[in-house]
Amino acid sequence: IVDLDSRDRRYQELAHAQSGMTRNQLQIGRELAVESILFVRMTALPRVECKIEEVTDLSTAALQLAMAAASKGQSSGDAQYKKPTGVTYLTVFVEATLVNVETGRSISFSNTKPHRLENDVGNTQCPSQLKAFDEAMQMVGTEIARNLSPEVVTFYIPLSDDTDGLRGGDPSRVQAFLEEGIKWAEEGNFDMAARQWERALDESGGTSTSALWNLGAYYWYSGDMDQAHSYFDRAMRSAEPGWMDDKRYVWTLFQKEKDRMAKEGY
Asked: What is the pLDDT of residues 136-159, one digit of tens each?
C-alpha cells in the first residue's frame, strides 16, 4: 500500500478522483511496484453530538463497595454511583477501497459508527471535539485495517528427507541432497534448498517422492501455483501407502488457496 500523496504531482492528481485512479491503476501499480492501492475518502462532514448521560463513578463505587464489604453491610445499589456527565459522540464518515492493480478487483469498507468520548465523571461540559476527532480517526484506521487487510495464515509444511520407494539412483546420495536442501530451507535460503532437491530428483531418476514434495512446497512459497500443483500431484502419485498421512492437510490447504487465487484473478 502506497501513500499517493507522497508521490509525484501526477499521482496526486490521479488520487483526487477514484475514477482517475481506476483508469490508470495498472500503470501506477507497475511503476510503483505495488500489488494494491488503498483509496480513502470522506463521504460527508463529521457529525458531532453532545449529550448529558449518567456515568458510573468507578472510584466512588469501588470505595463504597469495599467499605460495605468490610462492615458486612449491603450495597445500596448502582444508582448512587452515577453522575450526570458530558459525552461527545463524533462520527467520521469514511469510505476505504482496496484495489488490486492487476485485476481491478476491489473490496470496500464504510464507517458510520460514532466514537464516544466522555468527560471526567460529574463534569457536564462537552469533551473536546478535537480529541474526539483524533480518537475517531484512530478507530476508523483500526477498522479499515481489520476489514481490508489480507488475512495472514501461517502453518507448517512438513519437508521430507526419506528415500522410501526409490526406483533409481544411490539412496545415500539422494538423502544427502534432501537433507542439505532442508538445511538451506531452515536458514531461509529457499532457492539453494530447491537446487539441492532438484539434484536429489535427478539422482533418483525422477522417482524421489520426498524431492517432488519439497519442490511442491518451494513453488508454493514462490507463488508459482501451477508448478507447485504439478510437483505435489507427482509426489502423491509416486508415494507409497501411508506416506501422505501427515501431509494430506497441506494438500487440502493448497487446493483451497489455489482456487481462491483463481477466483480473484491472480
From this structure: 999 999 999 988 886 666 778 899
Question: d(Cα 53, Cα 263) in Å, to the nearest integer?
Answer: 50
C-alpha distances (whole Å) from 153 to each of 38, 51, 59, 235, 257 are 22, 43, 42, 24, 11
Residue 118 pLDDT more than 90? yes
Band of residue 17 on the pLDDT scale cut at 50, 70, 90: very low
User: pLDDT digit string (tens) for 210-232?
Assistant: 999 999 999 998 889 999 999 99
Residues 175 and 115: their CA atoms lie apart, in Å, by: 61
How far lies 234's CA from each of 22, 131, 210, 227, 230, in Å?
42, 61, 10, 11, 6
3-state secondary structure of 192: helix
| Grid cell listed for 177 | 541432497
CA distance 33 to 37: 11
Query: 496526486: which residue's cell?
Result: 12
Per the structure block, which three cell numbers stand in for 174? Answer: 539422494
Domains of the chain: 4-51+82-148 (no CATH), 171-263 (1.25.40.10)
Residue partners of 200: CB distance under 8 A and separation at least 6: 174, 175, 177, 178, 181, 208, 210, 211
Residues 6+ apart with CB under 8 A from 76: 64
